[in-house]
């Protein structure tokens, strides 16, 4: 019989709806039930494409005896971390403080007042590799609750007190200067892997925001080291197993330092961020590899993640059926030499094995290999390569596909809108710009209410119950502003302004610091506030970037000052931990560059208007703001007072409240933006 999760909209929670565990969603009723029964709460946090979440579910939550014990002695609460990042954040902070590490599935035991007292992540069903078995953990916690209740209560209260006393010392009185960015670059240089690209060792995650900072820093300063680190990392990832050599798109991370074997889940946010980075690398260098990867990644998002309503689904699972009934990680993606021969024949398979790095020993498990792209591009001509890729892709599509989490997350769709709009504009792909527009329309229709408040998620066109967090407002505003630059439709600037006004009113402290949740959001044991960038830009740094761009469009002093105050965190963290404040560093590059503003005025059907607009979009100036419209249209403040020059379309370039004389020649505009 289904449990309470059967009524939820999260695909991850619905995966657990038929467990014998009597799950509750995160809700006041769960804690009221724990008080009534005088039992602790088991909080289990995960997400749909989490491999070890599936493992623990199969081993323990689908096991009848384990579920029976759990139901008798606990109230069990299941949370989708992608749906409730606030809940995930406050308890992950507690887990990391107590154990020194974290991860998912996250397993936390709480009092009925939601105070944590025992922590962990994955627990095997039986003791293994120094980890206690899950049944042992349940019995130990239950015994402590029964026999040492006072001690449990003291521990829980101390943990909550310690968390509440943690403060973030950030000087918001002035933004960072060029010196902090130079120190950050030196720090990244020390961590750079000069042999395999990327930063640090295994496991290796795509450093999307770091790459964006490096590209912007190169443009502003001329640093060749910054460009070389970015280009080398992008090429290593594009040639590695972390990139899907047949279908495009990136896996979540590489388990090794050489980008060979990925953890095969594919996340919308990774692909949106990386699509934009590769498009920007092409814009800076003309790299054909960067162009191909940007377009293939954009096509992957539209083909594999687009929903019927026009939004983008959250993720594809790492696991799938291997054809024999086993659910195996990577089964959909890996190949053996024999499988190549079955699809391509002996002659083509032999060359394909070299071209894609498929060996008899294998690079993954059970003799299978993850496709890579060693430096063997000249084995075949381009036409032959595409033919072989198409044949292998068609054969792969006959395999059982990984599951898809159809949940639409507002923040991640904002990232996708920005990436698709820019990639479509750069490479003359109006279909990609239309996909970005469709997703933006969905966010306005479904996720945004009449008070400019966002819902975090939707499923099948129906908004979920959970309020948007700071990253939702910031990333959606970022997407809308990027779409405005490409489309010339000022309404997207207006929508971004509504969201950013909500940020100023409900997420901003009196000193300019930012919180992850609104001042009227559900009260947890701590109001989360994390400025560090992780897999995505933090809400804090993303908001700084969107505020800065919006201020350039509108001339709003309030939004500009809010951005500068928020960037004070970069002064604190940039020199010490540049990889964890990289989007803040990238936004600071835009701040130091102005950001420059370009107003293109002219009739929409005049060819010079389009040429000037495209020239502006292709400029590498950090954080460049572009508006295009009819003369003195007034739709966007940046266009007001701008007219034609001798009856011809013109571009006005402004920087730090000073505007140069307008130009009507695309070459003159490109030269001015390159200064």
UniProtKB/TrEMBL annotation:
Residues covered by the Spermatogenesis-associated protein 20-like TRX domain: 2-163
Superkingdom as given in the UniProt entry: Bacteria
Transmembrane region(s): none
InterPro entries (alphabetical): 6-hairpin_glycosidase_sf (IPR008928), 6hp_glycosidase-like_sf (IPR012341), Ssp411 (IPR024705), Ssp411-like_TRX (IPR004879), Thioredoxin-like_sf (IPR036249)
Species name: Streptomyces cinnamoneus (Streptoverticillium cinnamoneum)
Alphabetized Pfam families for the sequence: Thioredox_DsbH
GO biological process: carbohydrate metabolic process
Protein name: Thioredoxin domain-containing protein
